[in-house]
Amino acid sequence: MLIIKNLHAEVEEKQILKGIDLTVRPGEVHAIMGPNGSGKSSLASVLAGKEGYHVTEGDVTFRGKDLLDMDPEIRAREGLFLAFQYPIEIPGVSNVNFLKTALAEIRAYRNQPALDAKEFLRMSREKQKLVEFDAQLVNRSLNEGFSGGEKKRNEIFQLAMLEPSLAILDETDSGLDIDALRIVAGGVNKLRSKDNAFIIITHYQRLLEYIIPDFVHVLYNGRIVKSGTKELALELEEKGYDWLREESREQEATITQ
Amino acid sequence: MSTQHETAYPLYTEVVNEFDKLTAAGRADKARQTAFERFRLLGFPSIKHEDWKYTNITRFLKDEYALVPTVREIPAGLVEKATIPNLDCYQLVLVNGIWDGQVRGGNLPGGISIRRVNEALRDPGTAALFENGKWGNQHFANLNAALFTDGLFITVDKGADAAKPLHILHLYTTDHNLLVQPRHLWVVGANAGLSVIESTVCTTTGEAKVWINGLTEIVAASDARIDHVAIQTATAGTRLVQHTTVRQKKQSLYNNYTFTLPGADLVRNDLQLRLEEDHTETHLYGLYLTAGNQLVDNHTLVDHQKPFCFSNELYKGVLLEQSTGVFNGKVYVHKDAQKTNAFQQNNNLVIGKRATIDSKPELEIYADDVKCSHGSTVGQFSEEALFYLRSRGIGEATAKALLINAFAFDVTEKLKIGAVETYINQLIRRHIPAEHA
Lengths: 257, 437
Hints:
heterodimer, A: alpha/beta, 4-stranded antiparallel sheet, 9 helices, globular, B: alpha/beta, 2 domains, 10-stranded mixed sheet, 10 helices, 20 strands, about 40% strand
């Protein structure tokens, strides 16, 4: 589904991704962990097409197409979804209108018939229930005055509505209490299928107790320095990131020699 | 005072001739004479005048304009164009400033009277209700007061209230360059209510231009409540200068909502609030969405003369393409006007790469126990918001339209009539195609 090869990127002329290789197949859940500043969120931003990030080397293929060549909205219409670490508030744009507009444009792109008001309402109700999203919030302005937890739940609600083939969750667990975390994780688990895939970016292992990943990758200094199964997450939780730093330094030393 | 340059406009000669004709016909009364003398002294404004510093109208004054309209029939399709869907109202249609005397949408309730200004002026006593000789340095108000043609004289008796709003359609149509000068006076009696929606719509043939120089006086007696919505659409070739003076008496409430949309070449609104007695409440909301080469100027004045008055003003601007916006908000608090609360806010979204805005708050406060504030912002699209919307599959053009609507929302949500709010939001959306950004 997603093939990242030797991805290098910079922001404001500063190198932040220094050769990422990652392959995600349908049905898989990949966790990307790493210390602050390792490039986790930058990877998410590059994949979603955020302005200001420049790819200097490498390729990304998404469902057989060149992802990097697409505008952000085309990426979304092709089935990519980014759950933001800091979802922004847009007063004056109602949640419902926003989702209707997004769905309409995505469906038009895919040559699918537009949803009528009734179908939209039914779908919206069903997904609200699935991710335990308060019906009152749906009618409010987009994220305006939402609590941190409500904003994150809104991201998962949007994910449920837009049904992407690949969802990237950027530190969705940050700032969530344990109940909110359980709800968010529960939503994701219900949305998992053999046809879609998830990339879960997180600093802590906590979220991975609820969403069990198939693979865990450790990002450090713009590179994936270690990959493994879910046990790797536990190991990181125990030992922290310091040992990786040293290992990485040694590797670098070997490379320069 | 009028320089060689200003009197050299063909329009100047035209208005002088017209006034001579009026005088010869014995129709130039004292009030018209005073106003015309004042206008002759002032001439047309130029950027040398402080109130016109950012609004250069020279290019519009260079055209020749006739003062007599040839078309009096309602042009096909124009009423439909200006009609607000699902609005339950009384509809009045004025063609080139002249009302046909009909009220559509049912019989007016008792206590509300609508007449043509010309007809009302024949009654002794009515003339005294008009402001005469008090237009100071207002170039165009003086010109109108000297040469106005006709308009609407509306009175609402003490305690009366129309259940439905009046929707006044100002239709302008011409096949040659034309100057139209309508003058209106609306008097709302003590404890009475009036809700008015005005739409200005034009259609011109070929290259014909129409200059509308409107003058509206509104009087709110004590405890009167007035809701006043102005929707300025109009087409290219329209130059719209509108002076509105509102006089508020004790405990009266006046709400104004002014929407200016792409179309007219020039829009200049002078909205002046005279808070003549204590405990009045005033809300001024404005939204200007400008495009093309439009020049849209909103000058407001809130004149706090007495204590315990409250005024709040929120004007928002969205400037597309190479359009120019001007906002000048003056708040004047007299020495006597203690315990005044006066707030003002002007926010602008400058989208066109060659669009400009001049925003100028002006506070003059001579009382010492008041609360006054003002704020002015000029910004662009939030890149973050744009990316968020696009990352959900919403195309750039649609995303921008959503954000413009969201920006305008603060103003449109203040409208009390749902049908009007829906209508305005649709107008806004219609004017934001992708190529504007």
